[in-house]
Amino acid sequence: MNLSIQNLLSVTLVLLLSCGPVFAQRRGGGSARTSVNQGNVNRNTNVNSNRNVNANVNRNVNVNVHHDVDVHGGYYGGGCCYHPVATAAAVTATAMVTAAVIGSMVNTLPPSCTVVMINGLTYQQCGNTWYQPQFVGTSTTYVVVAAPR
Amino acid sequence: MFKRWFCSILIVGFSLSLAAQSSPAPKKVDRDPDAIAALNKMGTYLRTLATFQVKSVQTTDDVLENGQAIQSNGVIDVIAVLTNRLRAEITSDDKHQFLFYDGKNFTIFGQLVNYYATVPAPPTIGELIDKLDEKYGIEMPLVDLFLWSSPQSDSTKDIIGAIDVGPSSIEGTSCEQYAFRQAGLDWQIWIQLGDYPLPRKLILTTTDDAARPRHSQVLTWNLAPSFNDAAFTFEPPDGAQKIVIAEVGAYGNDQTEPKTGSSK
User: Fold this and answer.
1) Dihedrals φ, ψ of A32, to 5°?
2) Nearest-CA neighbor of A142 among A102, A83, A87?
3) Three-state DSSP state, B261
4) Hey, is B3 helix, strand or coil?
5) Which residues of A47-72 are buried (b: 16+ CB within 10 A; e: fewer)?
């Protein structure tokens, strides 16, 4: 009897221990679903739910090359990604003054940009880098584009 | 030694009591038909509304990469004229946006950045909801209010657990509180008692994320709003700049890490 109790205990312990890593492996950055009837994974053709927690937007760094912009869910909350506290998990970008990658996105422009209108659309020219402001979901994001002219 | 023996007894006792609790009722999943019926009644009632204005004071959790949930606040004010006009104002910590839909065009206007984007829109709010979701990855604000008991959504079929929690008051109004479970989502709803079975509060807990992020809405209704037709058509203010809306897949589903070495 005593033996079986010990077995029970050890099995329980093993179970407890083996549960540990499950809880430790958190998926990076999602956000709460905001509707019951929409947002099921079967409708959601892009399941990239990583929030961009790179808040290095106030530095004199041109490029934030993280592409993990949330395009589904959580738009109407907002705000999480601009708080300095969110930089804890962020990657610190090294300065790349001119080598902005086409297609990369930033939340905030570097200083000294010029608004240029081309074919009725707005661009921002910042040195040699051109940004096109876009709504991604309902968030405003600047996408690095090839020089439009 | 005595201590150990005592401890073992405790564990056995605990295990037995656990077994006693769980074994006699390998319960069928709790799916109270009355709770489902209340949801359907609410949905059916919502579908009778030709015009409404609703304000949602809400919170949404975002999850950081380290698994920490961070809450943000927002207010959404929607005025809808079925089937083809809608205006929404979205205010949050870093946003003040307006959505306009007049049956022909859909516009997002970000007042803080003074940007707007307009795209052609389908002829009904229902179709607009689908188009925004599928093409632009935009969830219509308070989309549930348009989908419950709608032909587009069979919202109750996914429900695997339904409980009538009991009476509860929301901002002084008597409601009945219900709790539902479905895959990846636990949610609670407070439905107004009486002749107007409106949803007054909603809490969604995303359960397939270890951080269990939550979203909450407290809803205030006006079933006789005043408006004029111009409210649904966007007129760009001075200095507003036209931009585009990124289509789903253009950037957002690029899961790749930075193309250049950003970290080191």
Assistant:
1) -65, 140
2) A102
3) coil
4) helix
5) ebbbbbbbbbbeeebbbbbbbbbbbb
Residues of chain B with C-beta less than 8 angstroms from the C-beta of A148? none
Going from the C-alpha of A79 to that of each of A1, A82, B70, B143, the distances in angstroms are 58, 6, 9, 21
Given the DSSP bridges, would you call strands B115-120 and B241-242 parallel, antiparallel or unpaired? parallel
Residue type, B154: D
Q: Which of residues 229-248 of B touch A (CB under 8 A)?
A: 241-246, 248
| B210 to A25: CB separation less than 8 angstroms, yes or no | yes
Using one digit for the tens of pLDDT, what is the confidence trace for A85-101?
A: 333 333 334 344 455 78
Sign of torsion, CA B99 B100 B106 B110?
Answer: negative
Could you report how far apart the first and last alpha carbons of chain A are, in Å?
A: 84
b/e code A95-115 from CB counts within 10 Å (16+ = b)? ebeeebbeebbbbeebeebee
Chain A residues touching B210 at Cβ < 8 A = 23, 25-27
Q: Rounded CA gap, B69 and B88, in Å?
A: 27
Q: What is the pLDDT of residues B208-242, one digit of tens each?
A: 999 999 999 999 999 999 999 999 999 999 999 99
How far apart, in whole angstroms, are the C-alpha atoms of residue A73 and residue A55? Answer: 20
